[in-house]
Amino acid sequence: MNKRLNIGLDVDGVISDFTSAARKLCKQLFNGRPDDSLIQTSWAFDSLGITPEEENILWRKIDSIPNWWLGHTPMPYTDMLPQLCDKHRVIFITNRKDGTGWPIEDQTKIWLKRNFGIVNTNVVISDRKGPTAVGLKLDYFLDDRPRNVEEVFESSIDTKTYLYNTTYNQECKGIDRVTGLNHFIYIVGEDPRCS
After folding, report:
1. Residues 187, 124: one domain?
2. Are residues 67 and 55 in the same domain?
3. How far is CA 5 from CA 71, 97, 149, 163, in A?
4. What is the average pLDDT value for the chain, to the nearest integer?
């Protein structure tokens, strides 16, 4: 059948290493904190010793740096992303906010082209990923934030949802997890509609 599937991918924490970039900026802002030995165990940075007020300072700083999102490194195990984009309709769904510099969808497209050689990307900005998944008729969805995965699971019954396994989402139970983007791509490749 070799069907072209609709696949939704979150960007930060799945493809782009937001956490490392944010930790580096925190160290610059907060006298070397957080310590490199600390492991982030919650969505907010409180497990790293960063207060909610300091996290607000971090976000204001991010918003003030022109094109900050272009400087991130790719997450490990993402090298199969161009192959996925060649075979299927991949939609990058992110909740990034506009700051200083180019519009956030442009920064995301440029970053994908620079790091993966992907052109003509579909980037959607949304903090309501459940309704977005319904509207896009997604066959698969991957995110690192449990709330987003749960919302898609509840809203879009035809979408197979996966959670990117990381230290800061371990409290979430009962959701299928993947160890990286390449693992997710392997699962998609096993779909009988693709052969």
Report:
1. yes
2. yes
3. 30, 28, 18, 19
4. 96
